[in-house]
């Protein structure tokens, strides 16, 4: 079927200048030509901008085979309250298109105001690609699909320009043009403040207020990328290609409403910095400061020997001090329990996660610690958080050793109580600080064995001070249980058994060889915690299988006291071996720190040992202070003299060669 392009341009002469009044084009069937030509002539001659002196009407037959049919894009409306908001919406559009030089694009907008056509802007080079900067580029030969109903549909034209539909036709042609990734359009009609942005990604996005009313500052920019097509190709398409757009929908009011909500909320945050920036910078500076952490992959049970990244190594870094994690009795108990109970516990202790095994374990811990009762938490970390935050309130004061474990520090923070840090294991400083807060209610808290230094709290003095000032006393026995005290019962036993802190917190994850944390104390304390400790109430309880391992671990410590003795022997043996290589170290516990100082050197030493078959972790900031990086040797009861000798020799040789400790 034949098609005709009808183009109308109306202008007025003002002196020697020709002022554009109106322009329009249609692609119609032969039967429609007359009616549409009439309608367009009428429109050109009767325009609100004034009467035309000159009207050009061009009717041209076009080859049907040349017509490119394009589907209309989706349409959304962004309701903007001001021209400023409208500009922000354009910026957002440019950001979405990943255009880097957004400010420059925005600056180019004002250059379009004096142009007759559109600007073709190369977004990579910021160069204008139109052959004539004043004329710009005019997209022509386009229309929307209309029913071939003779003259009937001409009524739709109704002599009035339909901004919305004509704009969609133009935008559709432009967004499908080779090399063009998007378009910004502001009308130069002073009464028409709605503009649009369009791209294949966004569809056609109306922006209800893009300029101030009364302003004839309008123009359009075609955002062009020379890597996708040549400018000649793009211009040829825009000016010559015959395009008919199908399926233009009426404005959808739902999308107007939604876009309004989105836009006003989102715009408030438009100037927010890139949310990943801080994350990226932190990771980069961790690398620069030699503080970036990576993990080794272990494919064997935790023991004096492990397989790490496919290699067999001597392990001298584990908290499994008594080698109970893979003890046959522990495994057997776990097998039995998994058969009967399965794995997951299915709920928190106060709902469906409380089994007879959980209760049995708590009784066992209470007995082991010589207390009335005990309560089990999912980890030692959670235990510290939960207990301290349940007991301490904003009006209280917590006195905390400067080397206390991170979980104690986090518990103090969570409680919102005032936190006073006293010098490491310095009871005089502690007392002085307490006196600076007369009448304070609160808590004194300390590691029993310090996790990175391996030294032991001065418990007698600690308890005396707490009692004198009527403060709660709390100790963290993560590294003392199973290690110190004649039979490995921890710090209370170590100091004779009479002096008991109010709160004995500990973990089941270290010498006991399982997982979990606990608090032992009076019945009153434990009942209080069961009812108020959020880490207990709001978390699914440990698996019965884990509980079985914990129970078996405690049983083994009680039954096989020689383990604790073997560990103690190994500690002394290793310290003596180090001394032979000129390295001074001291400890009464399984933790033997070898302080290197410099983070990089500590890492290098650890890597050297790793390369020579010994796994000892380098501990760095923030686990220890900056400049106090160290090897943290953690011994086990089952290390052999040969293994200990080998490690001491490697440490000695390397440090004597590379740096003196
Ligand atoms: N307290 C101390 C002193 C610790 O060393 C640790 C573990 N590193 C914890 C508490 C936390 O125990 P868990 O690993 O069971 O969470």
In short:
By secondary structure, the protein is an alpha/beta fold. The chain binds 4'-deoxy-4'-aminopyridoxal-5'-phosphate.
Question: Could you list some keywords that capture this structure?
Answer:
seven-stranded mixed sheet, 37% helix, binds 4'-deoxy-4'-aminopyridoxal-5'-phosphate, Aspartate Aminotransferase, domain 1, elongated, single chain, alpha/beta, 661 residues
Describe this structure in words.
This protein has 661 residues and is of the alpha/beta class. 37% of the residues lie in helices and 21% in strands. The protein is built from 21 helices and 26 strands. Strands 5-11-10-9-12-6-7 form a seven-stranded mixed beta sheet, sandwiched between helices. A seven-stranded mixed beta sheet has the order 16-22-21-20-19-17-18, with helices on both faces. Helix 10 runs parallel beside helix 18, helix 11 packs parallel to helix 12 and helix 19 runs parallel beside helix 21. The radius of gyration is 40 Å and the shape is elongated. Bound molecules: 4'-deoxy-4'-aminopyridoxal-5'-phosphate.
């Amino acid at each position: 079927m034949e098609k005709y392009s009808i183009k109308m341009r109306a202008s007025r002469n003002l002196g020697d200048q020709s002022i554009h009044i109106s322009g329009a084009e249609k692609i119609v069937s032969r039967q429609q030509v007359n009616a549409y030509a009439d309608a367009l002539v009428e429109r050109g001659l009767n325009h609100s901008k004034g009467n035309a002196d000159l009207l050009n009407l061009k009717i041209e037959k076009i080859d049907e085979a040349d017509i490119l049919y394009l589907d209309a894009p989706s349409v959304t409306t962004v309701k903007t309250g001001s021209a400023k908001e409208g500009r922000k919406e354009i910026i957002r559009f440019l950001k979405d298109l990943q255009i880097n030089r957004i400010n420059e694009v925005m600056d180019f907008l004002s250059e379009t105001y004096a142009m007759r056509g559109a600007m073709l802007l190369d977004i990579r080079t910021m160069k204008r690609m139109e052959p004539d900067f004043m004329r710009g580029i005019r997209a022509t030969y386009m229309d929307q699909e209309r029913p071939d109903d003779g003259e009937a549909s001409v009524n739709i034209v109704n002599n009035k320009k339909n901004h919305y539909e004509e704009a969609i036709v133009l935008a559709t042609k432009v967004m499908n043009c080779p090399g063009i990734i998007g378009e910004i359009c502001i009308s130069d009609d002073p009464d028409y403040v709605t503009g649009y942005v369009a791209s294949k990604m966004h569809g056609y996005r109306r922006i209800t207020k893009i300029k101030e009313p009364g302003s004839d500052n309008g123009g359009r920019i075609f955002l062009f990328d020379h890597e996708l097509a040549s400018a000649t190709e793009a211009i040829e398409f825009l000016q010559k290609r015959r395009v008919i757009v199908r399926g233009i929908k009426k404005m959808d009011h739902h999308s107007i409403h939604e876009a309004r909500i989105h836009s006003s909320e989102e715009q408030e945050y438009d100037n927010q910095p890139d949310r990943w920036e801080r994350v990226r910078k932190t990771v980069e500076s961790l690398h620069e400061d030699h503080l970036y952490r990576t993990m080794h992959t272990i494919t064997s049970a935790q023991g004096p020997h492990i397989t790490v990244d496919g290699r067999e190594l001597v392990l001298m870094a584990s908290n499994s001090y008594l080698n109970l994690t893979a003890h046959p009795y522990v495994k057997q108990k776990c097998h039995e329990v998994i058969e009967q109970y399965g794995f997951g516990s299915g709920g928190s202790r106060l709902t469906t996660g409380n089994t007879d095994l959980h209760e049995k374990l708590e009784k066992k811990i209470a007995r082991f610690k010589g207390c009335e009762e005990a309560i089990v938490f999912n980890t030692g970390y959670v235990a510290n958080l939960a207990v301290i935050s349940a007991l301490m309130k904003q009006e209280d004061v917590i006195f905390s050793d400067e080397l206390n474990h991170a979980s104690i520090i986090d518990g103090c923070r969570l409680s919102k109580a005032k936190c006073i840090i006293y010098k490491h294991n310095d009871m005089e400083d502690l007392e002085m600080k307490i006196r600076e807060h007369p009448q304070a209610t609160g808590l004194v808290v300390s590691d029993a064995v310090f996790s990175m230094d391996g030294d032991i709290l001065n418990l007698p003095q600690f308890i005396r001070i707490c009692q004198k000032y009527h403060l709660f006393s709390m100790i963290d026995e993560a590294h003392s249980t199973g290690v110190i005290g004649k039979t490995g019962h921890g710090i209370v036993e170590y100091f004779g058994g009479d002096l008991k802190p109010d709160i004995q917190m500990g973990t089941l994850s270290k010498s006991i060889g399982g997982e979990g944390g606990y608090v032992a104390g009076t019945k009153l304390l434990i009942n209080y915690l069961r009812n108020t400790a959020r880490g207990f109430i709001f978390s699914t309880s440990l698996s019965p299988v884990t509980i079985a391992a914990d129970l078996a671990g405690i049983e083994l410590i009680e039954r096989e006291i020689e383990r604790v003795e073997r560990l103690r022997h190994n500690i002394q043996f290793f310290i003596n071996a180090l001394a032979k290589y000129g390295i001074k170290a001291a400890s009464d516990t399984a933790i033997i720190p070898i302080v290197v100082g410099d983070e990089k050197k500590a890492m290098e030493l650890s890597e050297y040992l790793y390369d020579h078959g010994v796994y000892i972790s380098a501990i760095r900031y923030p686990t220890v202070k900056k400049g106090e990086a160290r090897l943290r040797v953690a011994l086990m009861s089952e290390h052999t003299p040969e293994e200990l000798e080998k490690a001491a020799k490697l440490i000695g040789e390397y440090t004597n060669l590379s740096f003196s400790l």
